[in-house]
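Re: export button greyed out
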Amino acid sequence: MTYSALENEIKTYEKRSPKSREAHLKASQRLPLGVGSNYRFYPPYPLFVQDANGVVFHDLDGNAYDDYNLCYGTLMAGHCHPAVVKAVESRLKLGTTYGMPHGLELELAEEVCARYPVDMVRFTNSGGEATMNALRLARAVTKRDKIVKMEGGYHGGHDGVSVSVKPQAADFGDPQAPNTVIISEGVLKATADATIVAPFNDLEATEAIFERNPGQIAAVILEPIMMNIVFVTPDDGYLQGLREITKRHGALLIFDEMKTGAKLCYGGASEYFNVTPDIITLGKSIGGGLPLAAFCASKETMSVISGQKMYHAGTYNTNPLVMAAGLAMFREVLTHDAYTHVDAMERMLVEGYQEIIDKTGMIAYADGIGANGALVLYPKRIRNYRDWYDHDTEVWMHYWYGMTNRGIVPQPFWPDEQWTLSVQHTEKHIKAHLDAFADIAPALAAAQHERKLTAQAV
Ligand code: PMP
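Workaround output, generated via the alternate export path:
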């Protein structure tokens, strides 16, 4: 149920962006939903982009926005980072793709192996391809079929992980043994059936899954911090516990580090949490805005590929443009100094949000580490999907449209996402972001309290 303050923000959004409305209407004739990826559609229509540079993008109506969406967290470099642009330009006239090895892929693999606890890398063009092949790798190594994924976890659009991404309460099942809920028509049921769903932050439940499926589970795949249900950190000892359980049962542990790999800290989640998984998948910000992802593991694990037992291929894999962008990221953008800067901006943003939340009496908290963080509309720390499920989507939309109308896109649309800071955000940007939040927060607090009273009265 919408409410008037939210409706007013949506009206303002529509008033500011008539050209996006028109473009979306036209695009819908040729592109299902009018977009190139289902997730990009949101009501009443998505903003269409004219151009972007640094931390700013313009929509078709010429409105400028400070960008904290940054392509779903792909641009920790910010838009058009000079090092990335230069690297790509320098390769552009030397051939854009060869389908043959050229040496840059080794250079980039060396960078990856220097930073993360892995010996070998296979690059892919998207995160979904990386997790799909990571799972195939785990099956090839263990000669087992089943995998375990977390309720609320997202790992791309392929069938094996297209279950229980955002299940509805009616389909939940037992909290300790959640149902496997297929997310889309067309998913092969037999593939989905091989995916068992576990609750995040619950070692006992995972242990029980292994006991119910002895010798059958190839891998547990998860984001070390769940960032497709806002921002859910692991309890102390949880990742260490998963490491121990998987090892004891002869299964592999896969950290899907699309978001944490570059943006949590210099060495990603294994450095931050001091846990070494068997396979790491990387993507998003390692490519500086170009389509680069990877799955990485020890020499021993990768021996099924080296020994031609497992097939992994792709026409565009390791094309020199993307490799050059990746090298610029690892060597020039994702430096220790960059993390010091981003950490300082992050502290300013999270603490600033929390102060405003406390002052206005919002039922919420701010959380974040490294380049990622979010406003969480929940009274206490979220530990798993079912906690997150209880949030108030309307108040969240009020926040998003309210901020966007004030020239700050605070994160991608949809409340399961979070903000990304880039190396190009400065104190000036953080201050503008906090000013916008301070402006909208009293209305959000009022809406929350009013809706709570209404809900109690019903
Ligand atoms: N894994 C995680 C954790 C992700 O967040 C995403 C994308 N949001 C993916 C995999 C899929 O990546 P891509 O969209 O590049 O296929």
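The two ends are 14 Å apart (CA to CA). The button fix ships in the next patch.
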